[in-house]
Amino acid sequence: MKALATLLAAGSALNGATAHYFFPNLIVDGVTTEYFEYVREDTQGYMPYKNGYQSTDFRCNVGSEDFALQTKTCTVKAGATVGFATDFGAQIQHPGPLQANGSKIYEIGPSAFTSDGIEWGVTGLDQITFGIPDATPAGQYLLRIEHIGLHGASVYGGAEFYFNCAQLEILGDGTATPGPTVLFAGAYTGYEPGILFDMYSKRFVNYTMPGPAVWPAGISSNISADGAIHVPDDDSSWSFAAVTSITGFASSTSARIYPSSVPLSVTPTSSNIRSTGIPEPTESVNPEQKSSHAHLHGKHGHKSHCRAR
Ligand SMILES: *[C@@H]1O[C@H](CO)[C@@H](O)[C@H](O)[C@H]1NC(C)=O
Ligand SMILES: *[C@@H]1O[C@H](CO)[C@@H](O)[C@H](O)[C@H]1NC(C)=O
Ligand SMILES: *[C@@H]1O[C@H](CO)[C@@H](O)[C@H](O)[C@H]1NC(C)=O
């Protein structure tokens, strides 16, 4: 999180980077894996994707089911640090939040609310990493990352979505039940305050991250300016750090996350697919991969890594 804050400060100027990016590279414990090696490819190409809130294409991207078999599955231990890198170092430049999904395990929202608009924690980044919670139960997961571009989001369907899914096999002794969980399609209607959002029409001192709360920290998705309830009514310039609300904890400075966190969700592949009626749970993992790391399911091999590289 510290690194994010540093990069954020440096990232306000456009660096000539492409605005249209995607997330083809999974990062595992500091190692950036190959282009679409563990991330499902798709037929969309450059993003964004817009307005298909109820489409299964919203899960892992257009046509990505067809790439499930040829995508490797990365074996990691719960507690590992994972993440995504953009295509060829493209920097995230569109204003908006980022989150990783299933049960949301990570999110990056506003870093500051200012008289010039919201500053976003991911602006200028070309990779994002976060931990797989220790309590995550072992199993196969689709790890979905999502950045939402809000510059056109004042009209319904105008928010731009940039997202991909990596295939993970998580090892560990976790027995928790991640939640709340949501499913794509269906997680969003498009009318959420953080999705149908006119970033130009007025100034804001709060932002509601779309989707569920972050698991397992109990961080709510309501991010507000530290010390301001209303936008100051004078014309002076102002800036307030963003603070993520904490539910279930007494409010305290130690509960602050700066930049605010974004949820990441880990969704079991099979339940995700079943609930949307796509008959593919077992084929979603490369059978060769599956057998090649099957022996790791025992008490051995608890080192974080991807197999078959
Ligand atoms: C994202 O996570 C939510 C919450 O668990 C889940 O409902 C939704 O299906 C996930 N989205 C995708 C694309 O997996
Ligand atoms: C800000 O908070 C108000 C009051 O709860 C809410 O109505 C509004 O939707 C929030 N705005 C955003 C962008 O989340
Ligand atoms: C979000 O936080 C703001 C500021 O604390 C509060 O006024 C607002 O009611 C909250 N909105 C929701 C939806 O929790």
Automatic annotation (TrEMBL):
EC number annotated for this UniProt entry: 1.14.99.56
A Pfam cross-reference name: AA9
Stretches the record annotates as Disordered: 262-309
Alphabetically ordered keywords of this record: Carbohydrate metabolism, Cellulose degradation, Disulfide bond, Polysaccharide degradation, Secreted, Signal
Entry keyword annotation includes Disulfide bond: yes
Keyword field contains Cytoplasm: no
Main subcellular location of this protein, as a coarse class: secreted
GO biological process: cellulose catabolic process
A GO CC term attached to the entry: extracellular region
Signal peptide: 1-19
Name the record gives this protein: AA9 family lytic polysaccharide monooxygenase
UniProt organism field: Aspergillus mulundensis
